[in-house]
C-alpha cells in the first residue's frame, strides 16, 4: 500500500519557481535549461515562462559573443515554435558568452532576454546530456560542476537521467533531470529537484523514485514521480543527516536491488573531515509505502578495521565508501565497496566485500574479504547480467603513477565477484590527443544499464577546460554495442 497524498513540491519546472525556493532573484522570462557544446558547435535549449499568447508574437534567437572580446559573433534564430538552437562553425577551445533574446516579430527591439551563460566547444566523446562551464555561476547556490549521473529506462523506452550540481564546500543541493525519447541520441530538460544531492533514480511498481540526500551529508530522503519524472512528491526523510563537519549519510548513485522481498541499497555514514565512513545498508519491503519513513530499516554502520585479513598496510586514513549491494552466485547478499588505499601497501587494486544479513536487515554488516579489483579509488557500479552469467562493471583503472587518475574507463567482468578480468578500455584519454594533462581529464562515476545486446552508460566527464579531473563540466551518454562480445 502506498501513500497517494502526493504534493509535487520537490520538483520545479521553471527556473523562476526554483529561484523562489532557493531565494535567488530569477526574474527573466527566458532561461537556458541545457547546454551541449561539441566539436565546433553548441546546442542551446531554453524555456520561456511568459504567457502562451506572447509566445506567438515573439522571435527567439541565441546571441553569441567571444568572451573578453567586443562585438557579437552572431545571432542565431530559433525555428518557429522551437526552443532549441544549434550553432556551428565555432572555434574549439575558445570561451563564448551567450544569451537567448526575444524580439517582437519583425523588429529588432529586445523585449526579454536570459541571463548570460558560458560554453567552450571541443571534441567530446559520446552525446552531451548537459554541460556547465566551471566559471558559470548560474547555479552557484549549489555549485558549478555537473556530477553524480544516474540513469533509468522506463518500460516504454523513455530514458530518464539525473545529475546533481557540485562544488567543494558549496551548497550541493540541486539536481536536474533530463529525458531522451530516441535511445539517447537527443536529450531535453524535464525539471529541477531541490534540495537533492547524490541521487539515484530507480523504478518500482510503475513509479519512478529518487533516493538521495538533501545536501552533502544531509538527510537521506526519497521522493516519487507518478508521471515519468515530470513532477515529484515532497520527499520523505529515511535517515536524519548532519553536515560535512559533524558527519552524516554518504552515498552516490548506487544500485537499488530487490532480494528476498526487500529493496536494498548501500549507505555510508561519516565524513572525510572525521577520517572516513562506516558502511551500512538501508532496506524496505517491496510491499511497503516507500514514502513512509517507518517502512525503512537502516543497519548499524560498521567501521573500517585495519586488522581485517587482507587489508592494506598503513595508508592515509584508509576507509570504504560507495558500496554496491549485489546478490552472489549462491544467493547471498553482499556489499562491495570502493576502498580508500592512498599511501598504503598496496596503494591501489583492492576492494572490500562486506556480508549483509538478508534475513535480519536490522543487524550490522560483517567483514567478508578483501579482493583484487581494478579501479578501487573511484566510484564503480557492479551489476549481474543473466544472459552472460557474468557480473560487469566500468572502472577507472590506474595506469600511471597518478593513482587518482580517472581518464581511463575500462569494462571488466567476473563470474563470481572475486576474480575480475579486463575486457577492454572503453574510453582512454591517451588515445585521443586531448590538450589537457591527465589531471584535468576524467571519465568517472559511471552509472549504466543493459539494453538488449548493448550497455549504455552516463559519465561525469571532464574535458576541454574543466576546473580539474574531479570537477567535471559534462554529463555524457555512451553506448557499447554488443558488449558481451568484447
UniProtKB/TrEMBL annotation:
Organism superkingdom: Bacteria
CDD domains tied to this protein: FN3, Sialidase_non-viral
Family matches, as InterPro entries: FN3_dom (IPR003961), FN3_sf (IPR036116), Sialidase_sf (IPR036278)
Name of this protein: Exo-alpha-sialidase
Protein source organism: Paenibacillus antri
Native organism taxonomy: Bacteria, Bacillati, Bacillota, Bacilli, Bacillales
Amino acid at each position: 500500500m502506498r501513500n497517494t497524498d502526493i504534493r509535487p513540491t520537490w520538483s520545479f519546472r521553471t527556473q523562476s519557481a526554483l529561484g523562489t525556493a532557493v531565494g535567488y532573484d530569477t526574474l527573466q522570462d527566458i532561461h537556458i535549461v541545457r547546454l551541449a557544446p561539441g566539436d565546433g558547435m553548441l546546442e542551446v535549449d531554453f524555456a520561456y515562462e511568459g504567457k502562451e499568447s506572447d509566445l506567438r508574437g515573439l522571435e527567439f534567437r541565441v546571441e553569441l559573443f567571444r568572451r573578453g572580446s567586443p562585438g557579437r559573433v552572431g545571432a542565431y534564430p530559433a525555428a518557429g515554435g522551437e526552443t532549441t538552437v544549434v550553432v556551428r562553425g565555432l572555434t574549439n577551445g575558445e570561451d563564448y558568452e551567450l544569451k537567448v533574446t526575444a524580439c517582437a516579430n519583425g523588429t529588432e527591439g529586445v523585449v526579454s532576454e536570459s541571463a548570460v551563460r558560458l560554453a567552450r566547444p571541443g571534441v567530446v566523446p559520446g552525446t552531451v546530456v548537459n554541460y556547465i562551464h566551471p566559471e558559470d555561476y548560474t547555479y552557484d547556490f549549489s555549485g558549478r560542476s555537473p556530477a553524480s549521473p544516474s540513469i533509468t529506462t522506463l518500460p516504454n523506452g523513455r530514458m530518464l537521467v539525473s545529475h546533481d550540481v557540485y562544488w567543494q564546500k558549496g551548497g550541493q543541493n540541486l539536481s536536474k533531470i533530463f529525458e531522451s525519447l530516441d535511445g539517447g541520441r537527443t536529450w531535453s530538460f524535464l525539471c529541477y529537484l531541490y534540495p537533492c544531492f547524490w541521487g539515484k533514480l530507480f523504478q518500482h511498481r510503475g513509479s519512478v523514485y529518487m533516493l538521495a540526500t538533501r545536501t552533502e551529508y544531509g538527510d537521506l530522503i526519497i521522493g516519487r514521480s507518478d508521471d515519468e519524472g515530470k513532477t515529484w512528491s515532497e520527499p520523505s526523510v529515511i535517515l536524519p543527516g548532519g553536515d560535512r563537519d559533524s558527519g552524516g549519510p554518504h552515498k552516490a548513485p548506487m544500485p537499488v536491488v530487490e532480494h528476498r522481498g526487500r529493496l536494498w541499497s548501500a549507505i555510508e555514514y561519516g565524513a572525510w573531515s572525521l577520517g572516513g565512513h562506516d558502511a551500512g545498508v538501508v532496506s524496505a519491503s517491496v510491499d511497503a509505502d516507500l514514502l513512509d519513513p517507518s517502512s525503512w530499516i537502516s543497519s548499524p554502520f560498521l567501521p573500517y578495521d585495519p586488522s581485517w585479513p587482507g587489508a592494506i598496510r598503513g595508508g592515509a586514513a584508509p576507509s570504504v565508501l560507495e558500496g554496491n549491494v549485489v546478490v552472489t552466485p549462491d544467493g547471498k547478499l553482499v556489499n562491495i565497496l570502493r576502498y580508500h588505499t592512498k599511501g598504503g601497501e598496496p596503494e591501489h587494486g583492492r576492494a572490500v566485500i562486506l556480508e549483509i544479513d538478508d534475513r535480519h536487515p536490522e543487524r550490522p554488516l560483517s567483514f567478508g574479504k578483501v579482493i583484487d579489483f581494478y579501479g578501487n579509488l573511484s566510484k564503480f557500479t557492479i551489476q549481474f547480467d543473466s544472459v552472460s552469467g557474468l557480473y560487469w562493471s566500468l572502472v577507472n583503472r590506474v595506469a600511471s603513477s597518478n593513482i587518482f587518475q580517472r581518464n581511463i574507463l575500462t569494462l571488466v567482468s567476473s563470474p563470481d565477484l572475486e576474480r575480475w578480468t579486463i575486457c577492454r578500455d572503453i574510453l582512454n584519454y591517451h588515445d585521443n590527443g586531448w590538450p589537457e594533462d591527465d589531471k584535468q581529464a576524467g571519465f568517472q562515476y559511471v552509472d549504466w544499464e543493459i539494453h538488449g545486446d548493448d550497455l549504455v552508460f552516463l559519465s561525469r566527464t571532464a574535458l576541454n577546460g574543466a576546473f580539474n579531473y574531479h570537477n567535471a563540466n559534462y554529463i555524457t551518454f555512451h553506448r557499447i554495442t554488443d558488449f558481451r562480445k568484447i
